[in-house]
Hints:
Elements: E1 6-9, H1 11-15, H2 25-37, E2 42-47, H3 60-66, E3 74-78, H4 82-88, E4 95-101, H5 104-111, H6 115-131, E5 136-141, H7 154-167, E6 171-176, H8 183-194, E7 202-206, H9 213-222, E8 227-230, H10 250-259, H11 268-282, H12 289-296
Parallel strand pairs: 1-2, 1-8, 2-3, 3-4, 4-5, 5-6, 6-7, 7-8
Helix pairs in contact: 2-3, 2-11, 4-6, 6-7, 7-8, 8-9, 10-11
Bound molecules: 3-hydroxy-3-methylglutaryl-coenzyme A and magnesium ion.
Amino acid sequence: MAEHVTIVEVGPRDGLQNEPTAVPVEVRIELVRQLAQAGLRSIEVGSFVSPRRIPQMAGTAELLRSLPRFDEVIYGVLVPNEQGALEAVELPIQELAVFASASETFSQRNINCSIDESLDRFLPVMELAQARSIPVRGYVSCVLGCPYEGKVSVRSVVDVSRRLSALGCREISLGDTIGIGTPREASAMVRAAAAELPIDSLAVHFHDTRGQALANILACLDDGVRTIDSSVAGLGGCPYAPGASGNVATEDLVYMLDGLGMETGIDVSAVAAAGDFISRHLGRATASKVARALAVS
Ligand code: HMG
Ligand code: MG
């Protein structure tokens, strides 16, 4: 039987949070609907953060109230603190995600507190989630480099990952926020994390700023990682990671996994159609090479 790989679609959140203008909630809903119909079973749909900092994610509550439901589709949202979690748990969500960083400066710029403070802020989030049996994902940003500090130690990545896991996060997503890493570095970082945490609790999250994302993912697949974040049409970026481009495109990832004989349950043409829908709305060409090839073939 083909080996299964879980893709976590982050386009509606990571993808749209960095757009110069906010995408209307109706368009976000239609995007999520098309992604679910394409076979994506885990979709990060928005975040409960300061609307002054990230106005693009305002309306996430309205979005969740209106999203169509599909069997087995998990809708997740980012929450940085108790305030966000209190709002999120009243809505129909299946997963929360907290986000920390392996770099102190990025933590300060992104969420206005130190790494230690961020983990303290996650405590009430974990309590709320546990009381309602909602699973929590934990992100670690800057795992292969920081836009402000440059090199980030693998020790720091492993340390923050372990602490998130000890708080109760069921999965740790290791984020190359600025798309700076190359395959051997990615592999060394994942192996160091896997030495202390179960490999099936690790996910990888590569931004494709320097075109290394698929190569990095292949290296991490060889190390046994089976959960990968990606973004339709290669949308994405973080406003606190200047110059960072989108995540690896879901279309390109599915195409590669299909070619490797790995099973995802996702229809690449249907994801490309969802990518076409959102790219048209944004008035831009898709960043997915596979989607471009499909469009001309
Ligand atoms: P803070 O420490 O309170 O201070 O917020 P602040 O000055 O940044 O913001 C304060 C304002 O936010 C106050 O409102 C609070 O009420 C409000 P004001 O008095 O100014 O009107 N506030 C909130 N509003 C809505 N929901 C909340 C909430 N909490 C406080 N939950 C905070 C800390 C984290 C909230 C803030 O700094 C923030 O929203 N930052 C944005 C973080 C963000 O969304 N970054 C992008 C996502 S992370 C990412 O992309 C990386 C990832 O993809 C992985 C990777 O690639 O590495 C996950
Ligand atoms: Mg990201």
